Amino acid sequence: MGDLNVLERVRGPREEAVRRLAFRILRRGEVASSAAIAKGTGFSVGEVDDALRSLASGGQVELDTDGRVVGSAGLTLLPTSHRLTLGGVALYTWCAIDAIGIPAALDQDALATTSCPQCGRELWIEFERGRPASEPGFVAWLPTDPCSNVREELCPQANLFCDEEHLRSWRAGSGDPRGEVLSLSQVEALGRESWGSLR
Predict the structure, then answer these.
(1) With bands split at pLDDT 50, 70 and 90, how would you rate the model's confidence at 22?
(2) Percent of the chain with pLDDT over 90
(3) Are 46 and 25 in the same domain?
(4) Residue 126 lies in a domain
(5) Number of structural domains, the chain?
(6) Is the dihedral of CA 143, 92, 60, 73 positive or negative?
């Protein structure tokens, strides 16, 4: 099965601590400033800023024009086509895999909403304690090409489709990109593996 941890090997403990705390702040629906992250991690503001620049270059955090964190580890405050209501907080994600994997890893009640790139139909999944309340038969596409920036290169193609027929049609019209077809249960498992450290 796919690996969303391609860049884990190049991230040090400081970057991981900064990314983790930023993610937790974002879960509350709040922007994460360098000062707030420094206070919560014990690093200096300068050390946090250095870590954020490194993380942003790999697409692992998203910064606004003032250098504050508005996205981390797939969770973002900026509108995208992937919506996630998590613990009653209205948020967005960078891709459909994030919208499914995050509530699965956190064992949270949630509602994920995205759309099929082939037909435009709105797709939604309700989670109860991190598990989908039903099995709608959707399939996900996880790109497998190497990337240096997760948010900019992987996420735009990591989508959810109505079914395998729509996925095949989309691939045929998109130059047959390389990747894996994942069931909803496989995305759940991938989410628990990839976001488990952020619980």
Answers:
(1) very high
(2) 87
(3) yes
(4) yes
(5) 2
(6) negative
Query: Could you list the residue range(s) of the whole structural domain that residue 68 is in?
Result: 8-76
Domain CATH number, residue 54: 1.10.10.10
Residue type, 15: E
Supply angle C-alpha 186, 153, 14, rounded to 5.
80
CATH number at residue 138: 3.30.450.410
- State pTM to two decimals: 0.92
Single-letter amino acid, residue 180? E
Q: How many helices (H) and strands (E) does the chain have?
A: 6, 11
∠ CA 52-38-89, nearest 5°, is 75
pLDDT digits (tens, 9 = 90+) for 116-130: 999 999 999 999 999
Q: Using only C-alpha atoms, what is the Rg of the chain?
A: 16
Phi, psi of 89 (to 5 degrees): -100, 130
CB 180 within 8 A of CB 142: yes
Does 92 share its domain with 182? yes
Is residue 65 within 8 A of residue 90, CB to CB? The reply is: no
Do 67 and 111 fall within a single domain? Answer: no
